[in-house]
């Protein structure tokens, strides 16, 4: 089946960008709500709107020291918009957390007051629950610990002169605010403090929020309130797609009760996906808002396949390699079997770790919760020592120039401070040489562990060692930033590190590839907003264990509930990333049942579904 496309179809949605430009007036700003399906060019429309502002309103904005606020969901999306608007300083692009912090940073007195009330209310609430609850139960023990921690924080509040926060870390210091607090405080301030509203309306005539279906609902509500109070000074632009709402933080029913003066442009085209994928997306969407997209004129037919295999299939990575080969022959596209030819989507990071061969590295460190953020984005100092210093030095092999550059820039042995104290420079340099050679030798050994390399560095002093590793090399550790649960934290942390140091060093390579997005694997949620020629979606609830989304349930034909609805949305997000061909792999306890269901739904033809490979 192929859709017949009338001529000139590609200009079908051109009116949308004009409607948005119509909103971008400094004298009569109008708010708009651009919600449209995957690949419809929402991000492109956002960039076009920003280009319009840069070209036509920049002078006026600069004159009054005003900027345009753009809020993105991820740091990657932020960087992309900054790049596409050529680093123009009048466009202030930030993630929601950075935006929220920029609003409240420095309002230390107000933050302290807010925390005083919030902590007191929390403590009252916990005490009431404790009075009703069963004494001696785990819940009671947890509640009492919580009450003690909050009480001690409350007592310390007056000693904090400046609250700090970083969107990218775990914020565990005594004067730190948590991510949730920053969002709550800023939304509260925006809603209730006229002075805060004045700062925002004077600073930002336009606030544009990308992926607003997943943007924290408190902030979205606060922005709505801000715009409603100052409709002639500020325009809010919300972009998104309710079908792509995959995080629990977003505002349910966003857009259902928009003020009547908001502009609601409609997009119908999908510029990204092949026709066959668009038909699949339209079918998936039939269960919700029934929006249908049409392909652009250059869209290819493309293809989809679904492989449905038993959950207990042994050696899944080998099976998936055979599936890629089957896709290459079904589509005639050899890229399916080339390294990096397809984007392979897994449900959680551990599944990638297993397939890429860094499972032990990952599982050892993920047991300590505060390590998780850094482990997933590659910023954990314990790992940066190995990934950013030791690995490049080992990989430099005989390349004297690279070795010299690494050692000169990264080794304390060649720092100006150390060199000033050196008496015999030649002897010192030859010691550094020997240290590099010994490290390289150790790194080449097949069975070298992280611990082996750490010991090498500890004895040569070639690189600084992060504090978390001090106890592993017999050095005294200072206190953790937080005093709360310190003993538990310390022993859990040391246990994780001890396990990690026994892991083969070689696993660092595939880990680095994964966290720098060079590997073929990514998570289902992590690719929101992105696009790839060939997409392989692996759905395996058993392997993902306890995951929020349940593909088994979605494919079982069970009655609608919130899990099915959110899994369907995630399914829509993953399928809509494909530009040429799409391959779905479902591991299930009931392959026949799943096949019957997906065919009955009209998602796939018989010829597109395989029960074996
Ligand atoms: N008017 C257009 N003409 C040609 N190509 C377009 C047009 N609009 C969008 N595209 C292309 O279509 C693809 C999808 O666009 P974009 O990422 O902006 O869509 P989106 O609506 O933000 O998608 P999603 O919601 O799936 O993240 C991109 O490759 C983009 O360059």
Automatic annotation (TrEMBL):
Signal peptide: none annotated. ATP binds at residues 36-43. Keywords: ATP-binding, Helicase, Hydrolase, Nucleotide-binding. Residues 15-287 form the UvrD-like helicase ATP-binding domain. It holds the Pfam family AAA_19. It comes from the Bacteria. PANTHER family: ATP-DEPENDENT DNA HELICASE SRS2, UVRD / RECB / PCRA DNA HELICASE FAMILY MEMBER. This is DNA 3'-5' helicase II. The lineage of its organism: Bacteria, Pseudomonadati, Pseudomonadota, Alphaproteobacteria, Acetobacterales.
């Amino acid at each position: 089946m192929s859709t017949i496309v009338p001529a000139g179809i590609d200009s079908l949605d051109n009116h949308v960008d004009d409607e948005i430009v119509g909103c971008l007036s400094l004298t009569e700003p109008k708010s708009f709500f651009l919600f449209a399906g995957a690949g419809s060019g929402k991000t492109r429309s956002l960039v076009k709107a920003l280009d319009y502002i840069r070209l036509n309103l920049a002078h006026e904005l600069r004159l009054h020291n005003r900027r345009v606020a753009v809020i993105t969901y991820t740091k990657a999306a932020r960087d992309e918009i900054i790049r596409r608007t050529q680093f123009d300083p009048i466009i202030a692009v930030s993630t929601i957390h950075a935006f929220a912090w920029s609003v409240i940073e420095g309002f230390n007195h107000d933050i302290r007051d807010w925390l005083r009330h919030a902590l007191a209310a929390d403590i009252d609430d916990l005490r009431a629950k404790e009075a009703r609850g069963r004494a001696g139960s785990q819940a009671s023990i947890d509640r009492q610990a919580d009450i003690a921690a909050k009480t001690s924080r409350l007592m310390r509040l007056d000693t904090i002169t400046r609250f700090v926060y970083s969107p990218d870390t775990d914020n565990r210091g005594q004067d730190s605010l948590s991510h949730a607090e920053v969002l709550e405080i800023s939304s509260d301030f925006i809603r209730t403090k006229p002075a805060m509203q004045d700062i925002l309306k004077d600073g930002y005539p336009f606030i544009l929020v990308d992926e607003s279906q997943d943007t924290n609902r408190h902030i979205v509500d606060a922005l709505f309130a801000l715009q409603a109070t100052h409709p002639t000074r500020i325009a809010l632009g919300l972009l998104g797609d309710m079908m792509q709402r995959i995080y629990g933080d977003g505002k349910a029913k966003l857009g259902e009760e928009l003020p009547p003066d908001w502009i609601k442009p409609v997009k119908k085209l999908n510029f990204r996906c092949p026709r066959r994928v668009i038909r699949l997306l339209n079918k998936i969407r039939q269960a919700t808002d029934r929006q249908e997209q049409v392909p652009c004129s250059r869209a290819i037919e493309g293809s989809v396949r679904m492989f449905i295999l038993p959950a207990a299939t042994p050696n899944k990575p080998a099976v998936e390699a055979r599936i890629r080969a089957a896709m290459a022959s079904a589509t005639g596209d050899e890229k399916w079997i080339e390294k990096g030819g397809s984007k392979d989507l897994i449900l959680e990071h551990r599944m990638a770790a297993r397939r890429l061969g860094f499972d032990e590295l990952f599982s050892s460190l993920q047991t300590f919760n505060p390590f998780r953020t850094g482990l997933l984005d590659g910023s954990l100092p314990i790992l940066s020592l190995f990934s950013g210093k030791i690995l490049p030095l080992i990989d430099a092999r005989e390349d004297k120039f690279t070795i010299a550059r690494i050692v000169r820039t990264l080794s304390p042995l060649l720092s100006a401070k150390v060199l000033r104290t050196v008496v015999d420079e030649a002897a010192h340099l030859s010691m550094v040489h020997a240290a590099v050679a010994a490290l390289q030798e150790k790194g080449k050994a097949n069975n070298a562990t992280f611990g082996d390399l750490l010991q090498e560095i500890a004895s040569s002093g070639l690189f600084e060692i992060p504090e978390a590793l001090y106890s592993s090399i017999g050095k005294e550790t200072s206190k953790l930033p937080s005093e709360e649960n310190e003993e538990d934290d310390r022993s859990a942390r040391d246990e994780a590190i001890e396990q990690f140091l026994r892991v083969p060093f070689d696993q660092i390579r595939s880990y680095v590839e994964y966290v720098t997005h060079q590997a073929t694997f990514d998570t289902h949620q992590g690719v929101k907003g992105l696009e790839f020629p060939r997409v392989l979606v692996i759905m395996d609830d058993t392997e993902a264990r306890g995951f929020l989304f349940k593909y088994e349930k979605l494919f079982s034909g069970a009655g609608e509930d919130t899990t099915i609805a959110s899994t369907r949305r995630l399914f829509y997000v993953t399928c809509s990333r494909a530009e040429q061909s799409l391959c779905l792999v479902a591991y299930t306890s009931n392959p026949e049942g799943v096949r019957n269901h997906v065919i009955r739904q009209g998602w796939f033809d018989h010829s597109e579904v395989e029960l074996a490979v």
